[in-house]
Amino acid sequence: MKLITHNMLTSNIIKGVTKGFPLIIAPTKVEVKEVDFNPDFVNKMLTKIDYPALYQAANSVGHGEGLPEQLGDDVKDNTDLLKALHNAMLQVEVIEGDLVCPESGRKFPIANGIPNMLLLENEVET
Amino acid sequence: MGYDRLEIKSILSLLGCPAVLKENDLKDGSPFMEVQLSSETAAKALMQRTVLSKRLYELWGEGSNLLEVKEQIKQLPKDSVEPYTNECSSFRIVVETFNKKLSTSDKIKRIEQLTEPGSVFCGQINLSQPDNSFHLLEFYHFEGTSQPANKPSKVYFGRWVSDGQRDRIRQYHLQNRHFIANTSMDACLSMVMANLAQVKDNDFVLDPFVGSGSLLVASAHYGAYVAGTDIDYLLLHARAKPSRAKQKARSRDESVRSNLKQYGFESKYIDVLVADASRHKMWREGCHFDAIVTDPPYGIRESAAKIVNVKDSEVKSTDECAQRYPQKAQYQLGDIFKDLLNFAAKFLRRGGRLVYWLPIYKPDYHESNIPQHPCLEVESNCEQPLSTTISRRLITMVKTEDYTNNGEQEEPQASIPVDHYECETFRQKYFRAVESEASATKGGGSTREESVDS
Fold it and tell me: Residues in domain tRNA (guanine(10)-N(2))-methyltransferase TRMT11 N-terminal (chain B) (predicted)?
């Protein structure tokens, strides 16, 4: 699971949970897999992501290198920063571990890089 | 409207090229259509994407016989012809006929007629590597089973400009795909769907019923970053039963990711998730996809499932450590499509497209069976027959309105004016159709009353 995906996921599917974002990452295996650098795509996704959540997630898996706590207005042409964002969004991958609901503590296991977001029958809303 | 025409229209609208498609073409079995385009650049850009159009020519003449065509070539303004026919550029003429075979000598006769002294063609003939290639196309009307007509009903002459992307169909053929599932979409239709969805560079495309990711491969081909979800844990982890005959077990590295990697698109792979597509709250509000391209399960070869709430006491296992597979419930097809539209209305960017297949029992089909949503507009709806009674329709919708939910009004909801599947599941209709076809071929024996239950 890439952190760009983590940035889009919530646990609000659990019955009774309303603040299921961002999910806590409890990784046991994290890898950095090379992805072609594409500043246009990074810039485009910057308008869609929740940056504080990305910053927090990247640091929580030990890959917050080069990320500022807050994004300024000068990102667009700052190649070093775009590369750091590219790395955090697309190259850092949680291979094994759990996503944890911040409200209920419910764990969603990640195996082989694929999160399992399925709930049990008694956990879903009717 | 046929798929070929739809594909061309969709690509041209994506490219922003104004174009006029001649309405009466592609009729009576003719494979030709005239398109007015603004430039050769536009024409080439179109052919860089289309998989259904084979070849594009600059039309130099058309008529019912060669003489008429020759006359038209003569009338063409000199400066539009000369750059391709002067003494310094080599050329060749290819004669192609449809619905009729011509002998080589007949073809040569036609070429000689076109290039006789005094014609516009001044360059050297070069059959293998000409600077310019001209094609004489003859279409013979084919009436039923009788012989083709003696005279062509239409003759075209044109300068070759560009070929379409038909070769891609072989390149992406499922036969050579590392990871396939029971209902993997074939390469051609996948690419048509990506064209109807107007997938382009740097788009973010989602397939909520991803399976083996065929639609993602096509989307990545057109430059998109791709993600998918599927409720089938075993399939995404390559532990499901193999889909290929004679294959005993899936190899560990079979995955959507490996499929993208196979074609050099690994950088376009975002993620796949094991998830229930009916649970939209899994996605953070405010994240938007450029396109949603999908083939939902119809319940025939892949079951349509979602997880429904039951009382705590009915849950079979509560063992935290064990890998658990929640009970999946039959998912009514009508609900799948309503859920899909609700999802698209919320998570597509404005102007983004939803492209999906809707299975149809033909005798019951009516346009009112197409699901609707206040935020989405049907762009096109095209049938692909699968049997005499079953077909599927490729539906393209555009998000035309922002999804607004200010808390006071009710959320805009998808609806199906007349639910095709209300009385009977598609599976029941499907097997009833299969059975009645089988009994009809047996000589119209007794009609069977009972229907197969799912």
Answer: 25-166
